[in-house]
Every structure is written in C-alpha cells, then in structure tokens.
C-alpha cells in the first residue's frame, strides 16, 4: 500500500516535533495535499531551483528540506518572484514541500547528531540543553480516612501525579496536624476555641506548572477542611536530551591538524572549505559540534571544556574574542573549526531519510540530493608578496593548508 504525503509528514513530525521550533521559524507542510501519494521522497538542505529540478525529474512527490522557503511573512507568491516561481513549479508538478528547521536542530536526535556521527563522535549530550518541562510539587495534609482517596483522585484528574507513562503518582506519609479554629470558622473537625490535634496523611504529587491553577482548585474542592493547608513548590528545571549542538568524543586523541583534516574528509567539499583556528599540534578528543551558524554557542563550548568546536559561519570578532579569552570556565578555550553552513547540515538529510524509512518501510523510496546548494561557488587564496603584504595573518580562522577542502 502506498504511503501518502500525510504519512511521511506524520513520521517526520514525530521525530522533529513542530512545537520545538523557535517562534520566528516557519516549519511544516509548505505546499501539497496530505492525501496524495508519496512513493518517492527527496531530502535536501535547501529548496532551490536545483533541488526542485531534481525532485521533479526523479519523480518524487515530496521534497523535504531543512531550510524554509518562506521564512519571512509574505503577502503573495506570484510566479513572477523567485520563491513564488519555485512554489508554482512544485504545485504544477504535483510535488509537495515540507520543512523541518529549528525543530530538527534541537530534536534528539537532530541536525547536530548527524554532524557528530559523520565526524566519528560518540555523543554524550547536547551542547546547550533545552530545559525540561516546568514542574511544581503540591504537598497537602488530609485527615486519615476516606477523604485521602477523594483528594488523591481529584488531584490526579486535574493533572497532578503524571510521570512519564504513569499516572496517579504520589508519596504519602503519616503525621499529626494541629490547628485552633477561631471565631467565624466552621471546622470540619473540632470546635471553635479548642486546639485540635488530628492524625493526617501528608500527600505529595508533581504537576505541570501550566496545570497549577486547576490542581489548586481541585484540591480546595475535594479537601474536607474549610481551609486546607498545602505547599506549592517550583521544582528546579532539569536539562533534557534536546537542545542545540552536541558534545562527544573521538575514539582516540589526535592533533588539531589531523582533526581538521578529518572534518574536511567527512563533509562534502565546498568553495568555503574547512578552516581551523588553534595550535595545529593541540591534542583533540572531546569535541562539540553545532550544525549551522554556531558562533552564539561559543561560550557554551568554552563551558563544556571541549578541545575543539565545529560549526559554520563563524564571524571574525566572536572568533577573535574567543581566542583572546584563552581560558574559560571549562579550561582552555577550544580550538575552532569553521565549515560551510550547507555542508554542516547536509548529513541531516540522511538522518531524516532514515526516519521515514524506519516508519514506513518499503512503501516509500527515499533519496538524498547531492546537489551542492551552498551559495559560495569559487574561492582563491592570496600568496603574500611585496613589502606591503602583512607578514603575519591575524585572521582567527587562518587556513591550515593540509586541512582545507
């Protein structure tokens, strides 16, 4: 039975949930009918004339890209505009377009896992972890007896006590409660003006912070006391396995020059090549990677205590300041490897193709585009000559001749 566009989209959104995308991003199905068949799917980094041509000529019914075609708001997609023309070509040819962008960046596994795998790293976790879900803990005190079951059930119904695949999770301990009803009180136990001591059960349950109001309301409604006592505690966020970048280790230690060569050999060649900033003889084993533009993660790489950081689109000033710092909270600042943006994200195409194959098996034929859609097409390196040529280069990402691609 043939898979549909909707089947492929469902598999990809399970792996790269749209809710993980940043609020400025544009992900999901750009064009196409979810009910139409999708026997062939092509994966690429960019939706460009080259990859659209490849999708159409190969007979693919769905083109999956990492970068969005329509990232910024548009008021029209006329065929007289470059992006509008691409959309019209796709629609006329019956090819759907789907994008997974920042949601694929932070997913587990995601873009940086694919980059790490290409470099031979064993990943230990994200470089900049996303915080886990915001949780509270509610603690209340219920008189011993049938009321404890009613309160517990009401809290669970309101959303408390859910941990993973379990519900109604709680912890209870026995103790003694004490209170003195004052004038105007209508105590469920005891009398006004007399100190009461009551055998009670301390009940603790976790809850999503978003359910706080509902859980407190359920407690007040189900508790037998006129004024139930309770504590509501905000729990410290735990790092999740999702987040930007990844940290991992090589199987053995190698020089920074050799590692830069490894990066160049692992990624598709581009005019940009591979540039290194650091002592060529520096030992490298623990490495951080971030697919795409990653100079915003320079501080995180320094804190991680890695030997090298591989990313794309490093700018002069952040790289210079990073090198000037010398040391950071994790020790010496890592050496830097700067690669082309497209090349750093291309390994993800194979990962995403594997997601679809694992979910839909032989009902879909997948292919990864090898069209180089990196915008840089040529490069030249100046040969120093003449008295006016600087004798020493201060570019922090100075080329390592033996490691350029």
From TrEMBL:
NCBIfam families: YbgI_SA1388. PANTHER family: GTP CYCLOHYDROLASE 1 TYPE 2 HOMOLOG, NGG1 INTERACTING FACTOR 3. It holds the Pfam family DUF34_NIF3. The keyword Metal-binding applies. Transmembrane segments: none annotated. The keyword Metal-binding applies. This is GTP cyclohydrolase 1 type 2 homolog. Belongs to the GTP cyclohydrolase I type 2/NIF3 family. Gene3D superfamilies: 3.30.70.120, NIF3 (NGG1p interacting factor 3)-like. InterPro entries: DUF34/NIF3, DUF34/NIF3_bac, DUF34/NIF3_sf, N-reg_PII/ATP_PRibTrfase_C. SUPFAM superfamilies: NIF3 (NGG1p interacting factor 3)-like. Residues 377-405 are annotated as: Disordered. Keywords: Metal-binding.
